[in-house]
Amino acid sequence: MITAYGDAPARTIRVGGTTYAYRELGPKGGIPVVFFVHLAATMDNWDPRIVDPIAKKRHVITFDQRGVGASTGKVPDTIEAAADHAYELIAALGFERIDIFSFSMGGFIAQELVLKHPELVRKLVLTGTGPRGGAGIDKVVGTTYRDILRATLTRSDPKEFLFFKRDQTGKSAAKAFIKRLEERTVDRDAPISLKALRTQLRAIKKFGRSDPSDLSTLTQPTLIANGDHDRMVPSVLSEDLQRRIKGSELIIYPDSGHGGIFQFHDRFASVAVDFLGDSA
Prior knowledge:
- The protein is of the alpha/beta class and 280 residues long.
- It has ten helices and eight strands.
- It has helices at residues 48-55, 79-92, 105-116, 140-154, 158-162, 168-181, 194-208, 236-244, 260-263, 265-276; strands at 10-15, 18-25, 33-36, 60-63, 98-103, 121-127, 222-227, 249-253.
- An eight-stranded mixed β-sheet has the order 1-2-4-3-5-6-7-8, sandwiched between helices.
- Helix 1 packs parallel to helix 10.
- The longest helix has 15 residues, at 140-154.
- It starts with 9 loop residues before the first strand and ends with a helix.
- The relative contact order is 0.17.
- Pfam families: Abhydrolase_1.
């Protein structure tokens, strides 16, 4: 049984005219945990210090969205379409019930999926994310382009700017995070193309400027987490999610940004494991 994300084999499944790339690890059987990744990300962008502890107890699935990484097809220009594609993949893999772990844009997609298919999802983890129509979500486009430029000028990874505060603690956490993402050395995905990135940013902008969804209909146990200085999806939107989703739990990590769960991975991983529980 593989429980280290760096060793998870790369797999593909054909659905209609699209080939989806995915990785799986952990004990098979029961309800799997499906990971929904962030803007511009491939499967290589998941922090193994969060995936691995979950995979010790649960069957974990990560995947590349259409047109990203090793998946073929056209990148969706709406969050709703991305949710439809995720459902297509999950159904093709034969899962009738899942738990979801999501981060940032992945959280937007996860919300749409749960609203469309509430019977599919048992538990929901929403990190670094916010609700449809949340104030400031549409500004992620400008923030992303500015930080890509800053990263280019300093020969850094844009996530160092986008996910972490630029104080000494944040910079150190950012470097450690990027190093962890490089631990996998085989079967790595190709980076997202500029065209695909622009399409995803348009989808996020539409999501941020759309009318709010009625999240009061969600009955799934939900864990919400973020840093207290999120520049991409403002931290107040995590509090907004908690108010909208009845009975949800909220964790805000201090002195951290969009990637608060990665900066505090040692604390958060155990919380996520306990929340997700077993697969029965």
